[in-house]
Amino acid sequence: MTNIRVCSSADIQEGGIGYRFKVLYNGEETSAFVVRVDNEVRSFLNRCSHVAVEMDWNYGEFLDDSGRIIVCATHGASYDATDGNCLGGPCSGSPLVSLDVTEHGGEVFWQPSNTITVPPEGIED
Ligand code: FES
Q1: Which atom number of ligand 1 is nearest to the Cα of residue 72?
Q2: Ligand 1 test: best mutation among 48, 49, 56, most atoms within 8 Å of CB?
Q3: Gene3D superfamilies, alphabetically (predicted)?
Q4: Which DSSP symbol is given to 18?
Q5: pLDDT at 27
């Protein structure tokens, strides 16, 4: 499968607003996002492991003030933004689903998988 360009590197600042995009997860349209933590890009489905709802507080806002923890806006589950592992709250040990992203040449790319694929109308959210 080919790499899909998601956004420009400049679109995601360390600990800042995440960049949202659309994906199909097991054939169902949902959103995903990329954030930058420790100057590396990390990407997860925008789907809490507690209840399958979007997690952002405002559009693209996932990280707490530390810039290292994703907090779900619905009931406050918290996840390590470096690996998506549950840190506490209603996620009860269940991690986020991660996506395979890389960064080169000032751009961020996503490698689709068997379960997370490109929607027919593209990834723009
Ligand atoms: S839906 Fe995310 S904490 Fe409940």
Answers
A1: 2
A2: 48
A3: Rieske [2Fe-2S] iron-sulphur domain
A4: P
A5: 94
Residue range 4-117 in CATH 3.40.50.300:
no
pLDDT of residue 2: 85
Q: Where are the domains of the chain?
A: 4-117
pLDDT at 1 over 90: no
Measured CA angle at 53 (ends 47, 55), to 5 deg? 65
Per the prediction, the chain carries an average pLDDT of 97
Rounded to whole angstroms, how far apart are CA atoms 63 and 17? Answer: 8
Residues paired with residue 63 on neighbouring β-strands, in sequence order: 70
pLDDT at 79: 98
Using CA atoms, how far apart are residues 115 and 98, in angstroms rounded to an integer? 11
Give the position, in ligand 1's atom list, of the atom nearest the Cα of 77: 3
Q: Which of 38, 54, 48, 25 is nearest to 103 (CA)?
A: 38
Give the pLDDT mean for 8-25. Answer: 97
Cβ of 47 below 6 Å from ligand 1: no
Distance CA 47, CA 96 (A): 7
